[in-house]
Amino acid sequence: MSNDLAEKEREFIAGLAEDTGRDLAGWMAAIAETGLNQRNDIIDWLRHQGFQFAWASWLERIHHNDGRLIYAENGDRAPAPVRRPSPSLREQSDEPPARARPFRDWKPQPPPSPAPAAAMTGDPIQHLLSEAKGLRPLADHVLREVLRAVPGTEFAATGIFIMMSAPNRFAALHAGPRKLRLYANFGTAGAKRSKPAEPANKAAPPFREMLELDDVRLIDEDFQRLIRAAAAR
Q: Which of 48, 72, 183, 185 is the most buried (most CB within 10 A)?
């Protein structure tokens, strides 16, 4: 299995130059030149360069791994050195992404709406997000996608939940280190994906149903459909 993951990772890296115009060393150097140190900031910057979340997250992991590939047994690394010390990156269990799509059809995207950032500057919400540990980038991504599905959503810390309102409360996120739980009342729209809500850290669930999220691939168009359905109830 590890050999398969290493091969998938090498395939992703080998296609970088053709797909994006920069090889791994070029992207490692570009990240270093930004001066960014926080994981989420680096992922955001890479997404603004045209990477989907999974690819941005993987390059950030390699960057924090001192330029070494995550699964390569021989410690393959980018030629350009990365000077920052690296924390352990095995805390995430996601697989390497597939080869990045060509960027020729990509158009620069505006930065994420400042609304969630403004809403999440308070210590209570930052503390709740920090509980996700290795899933923190995914938790941030979930909140952005909720805002994209329901513009104007406001976020607030309520106990152990990040509550979402527009203007009435329609969803809540519990950020855990192994999986995220997004609670809402989806109605018939959630018949195929949602499950009955379970307590979070012994706290009663704020809504009747929930989605369990531990993979960025679950944050798709159907996810946005469910969020819109919950907000409309």
A: 183
Q: Beta-carbon neighbour count of residue 218 at 10 Å?
A: 16
Residue 169: phi and psi, rounded to 5, are -65, 130
Specify the amino acid at residue 104. Answer: R
* CA end-to-end span of the chain: 44
Give the SS3 label for residue 60.
Answer: helix
Question: For 156, phi and psi rounded to 5 degrees?
Answer: -150, 145
Q: Which residue has the tokens 């970088």?
A: 16
Residues near 213 by Cβ (< 8 Å), separated by ≥ 6?
138, 142, 179, 180, 181, 182, 219
- Residue 174 structure tokens: 């519990």
CA distances from 97 to 48, 82, 85, 100, 202 (A): 18, 22, 24, 8, 35
Count the neighbouring beta carbons within 10 Å of the beta carbon of residue 176.
17
pTM as predicted:
0.56
pLDDT, tens only, 175-187? 998 889 999 999 9
113-135 pLDDT per residue, tens: 434 443 444 578 888 998 988 88
Q: What angle do helix axes 39-48 and 53-64 make, rounded to 10 degrees?
A: 130
Of 20, 76, 75, the C-alpha closest to 50 is 20
CA distance 103 to 17: 11
